[in-house]
Amino acid sequence: MFSFFKRKPKEPPTAPATAPAIAPDLVQPAQSAATAAPVVPAAPDAAGAVAAAPQTTAQAAPQAAVPAPSAQTHAGPPDAAVHADIVKAPVADPAAAAAKKTSWLGRLKAGLSRTSSGIATLFTGTKIDEDLYDELEAALLMADAGVEATQYLLDALKAKVKQEKLVEAAQVKAALRTLMIELLRPLEKPLVLGREQPLVMMIAGVNGAGKTTTIGKLAKHMQAHGQKVLLAAGDTFRAAAREQLAIWGQRNGVDVIAQESGDPAAVAFDAVQAGRARGADVVMIDTAGRLPTQLHLMDELKKVRRVIGKAIDTAPHEVLLIIDGNTGQNALTQVKAFDDALSLTGLVVTKLDGTAKGGVLAAIVKQRSVPVYFIGVGEGIDDLQPFVAEEFVDALLG
Ligand SMILES: Nc1nc2c(ncn2[C@@H]2O[C@H](COP(=O)(O)OP(=O)(O)OP(=O)(O)O)[C@@H](O)[C@H]2O)c(=O)[nH]1
Ligand SMILES: [Mg+2]
User: Fold this and answer.
1) Ligand 2: centre distance to CA 286 (Å)
2) Does residue 246 register a pLDDT over 80?
3) Strand bridging mode 199-205 / 282-287
């Protein structure tokens, strides 16, 4: 597989920051049939913590069809003796893993092909002149990079071409690649697990962005990294939303805290309490989709955030905004609005396998640089991947 999360070292890491390696067994507790059994219902204290509506716990049934995740056991906090760096899940079959990687990179490339084909044609000629720069400017703007990032890239490229005396179109394209990677690299950031117990993550975004699906995928990956996960169905508007999360819970064998109806803040509070009572490592709180222009709904989201802080005063530790990669420039508006309301800690950009143009990440890094933890390139479990600037730029430039 791939590097997915990072674990917080208790002491300064001894390995160089770039070292990719970590013994896989670090995060792979022994499998236990018993621990894959149905989960326990909500602890009474958690249920009673917020009065109001009756709480139901969607219990996870053992799944015959889905192989038990490798780590159903509660791994506990990271071992203080371990100077963990980037955590890798074991690769059972390197060839299969390589094929998977090729496949998702292929999907990312296909998804961003509108942009890459536009840019690639610019560099087929031999002339490096103002026309080329004009066309590149248009291509970057079309790709949703925004005026600021586009101007920055053009200026930097012109300077580089001059300084390095580049004359070949291929050299100029390579220079653009380097500049874009440098531009987007600040968005690369691993999600660090194990630094709080439980690590409370609130998930927000507009309708249909991919919040619930992302939570489901993350739950699975986190389990594979030895995390005990608890989900909260904070989208209390639609019964179908609860069910959707409950299905992900069943698939992954994790508890889902839900209420028949009621206040999303109360569900979130219950879930954090329950997470603490049950020794969960991660509590992920789903929320109902909303537009930033729906002010009363944004206020509700702020309330959810505030109330989570009443359960654990440092929580939520992560506030993720899920963005549909096809949203274009509007994604930047969403980042600003949700960041103003919630103080985001990270982004997940989904659906980059569709017709996304991708350039909006350049606009984001220039205007509101919130790290991109993951990108989604499909609906399958392996289609959620850590954001790597170099891979992204290679897909973007073709
Ligand atoms: N192609 C593709 N589809 C995705 C991706 N992520 C999510 N989806 C699909 O997008 C649709 C919406 O996903 P949800 O997870 O329900 O989105 P949501 O943000 O929870 O939606 P609401 O709760 O209604 O606001 C579903 O059909 C998902 O399967 C992705 O990376 N690629
Ligand atoms: Mg949802």
Assistant:
1) 7
2) yes
3) parallel
Considering every ligand atom shown, identify the ligand nearest to the alpha carbon of residue 350 and give its number: 1
pLDDT of res. 101 = 73
Locate 93 and state its tokens. 């079959």
pLDDT of residue 103: 82
What is the pLDDT, as a whole number, of residue 307?
97
Distance CA 24, CA 7 (A): 13
Return the closest-CA partner of residue 210 out of 392, 358, 342, 375.
375
Query: Is the distance from the beta carbon of residue 212 to the nearest atom of ligand 1 less than 6 Å?
Result: yes
Closest CA to 22 of 66, 79, 100: 79
By C-alpha distance, which of 137, 174, 132 is closest to 154? Answer: 137
**Pairing outcome for strands 55-58 and 255-259:** antiparallel
In degrees rounded to 5, what are phi and psi of residue 384? -105, 120
Is ligand 1 within 6 A of the CB of residue 376?
yes
Question: pLDDT averaged over the chain?
Answer: 80
Q: Which ligand is nearest to the CA of 206?
A: 1
Which among 173, 235, 231, 233 has a CA at the least distance from the CA of 207?
235
pTM summary value: 0.80
Distance, CA of 377 to CA of 101 (rounded, Å): 11
Stretch 135-158: mean pLDDT: 95
Ligand 1, residue 244: give the atom nearest the CA. Answer: 16
pLDDT at 188: 97
